[in-house]
Design a protein that fits this description.
Helix content: 25-40%
Radius of gyration: 17 Å
Length: 242
């Protein structure tokens, strides 16, 4: 279905990549190399936010690291969320809630751009908020909330860790999470990508400055966790001072 300006709106379909995506989500476990890094911040009873959960590779890892805790997996995309739900069910993961939301600076609705490959399968791991009406993508209207609103609604009493891989919307997430970050001071694992941040109208320096102003210090996401002294791309571990 197209709207008046020619955008193709998302309709769930079994595309050529669906079963391959589902197999990986159910039977594979990525990111194990990060477990020694994350263990210091995710105790057995941790509360974790997985923002941009996609097909659930981090969600599964967090749920197993915190068997007495709970993981809130935020995934606005219908396609990714369908795979995530099956992966959680077949892996018998009971300490996860899957929330059909994007997180940003303000609440409302937004448009998720879902790339479509030449094969017809979705590049759902690259889905992002915003985007023009160019070919090679479908668009889905999704709900948008702030992390502060979600934390208040859930009546959280603690929040230990936040991972966010949201294709350039990381600064918007942080701006909508200031109260929660100030209250709980969770460790953060954020993907930094200057090109994707620019797509959202932001810069890597702005993201860096915002987090520093909130009392966070950047570290390399490695077992030694060396501090970083300048903006850089890739996964960055942010730890609250004091």
């Amino acid at each position: 279905m197209k709207d008046g300006i020619g955008r193709n709106y998302f309709r769930f379909r079994l595309n050529p990549g669906f079963f391959a995506h589902l197999f990986k989500a159910v039977f594979k476990q990525h990111h194990r190399a990060l477990e020694p890094v994350l263990a210091a911040f995710i105790p057995a009873d941790a509360i974790v936010f997985d923002v941009g959960a996609h097909a659930g590779q981090f969600t599964k890892l967090f749920a197993r690291m915190a068997p007495k805790g709970f993981v809130y997996a935020f995934e606005p995309g219908t396609y990714a969320r369908a795979i995530l739900r099956v992966a959680a069910r077949l892996n018998a993961i009971g300490n996860v809630a899957i929330l059909p939301l994007a997180l940003g600076e303000r609440s409302g609705v937004s448009v998720l751009r879902v790339p479509v490959k030449r094969s017809g399968s979705y590049g759902f791991g690259l889905a992002h908020l915003g985007g023009d009406a160019s070919a090679g993508a479908e668009f889905e209207v999704v709900g948008l909330a702030t992390l502060d609103e979600v934390a208040a609604t859930l009546r959280l009493e603690r929040l230990d860790f936040i991972k966010a891989d949201i294709e350039g919307y990381e600064l918007r997430l942080i701006k909508g999470a200031r109260a929660t970050l100030g209250r709980f001071k969770p460790a953060l694992l954020l993907e930094h990508d200057a090109t994707r941040l620019a797509r959202a109208g932001d810069t890597l320096q702005e993201l860096w400055n915002e987090l520093v102003s909130l009392g966070y210090r950047p570290h390399e996401a490695s077992p030694a966790r060396p501090p970083l002294d300048a903006p850089r791309g890739g996964d960055v571990l942010w730890l609250a001072r004091g």
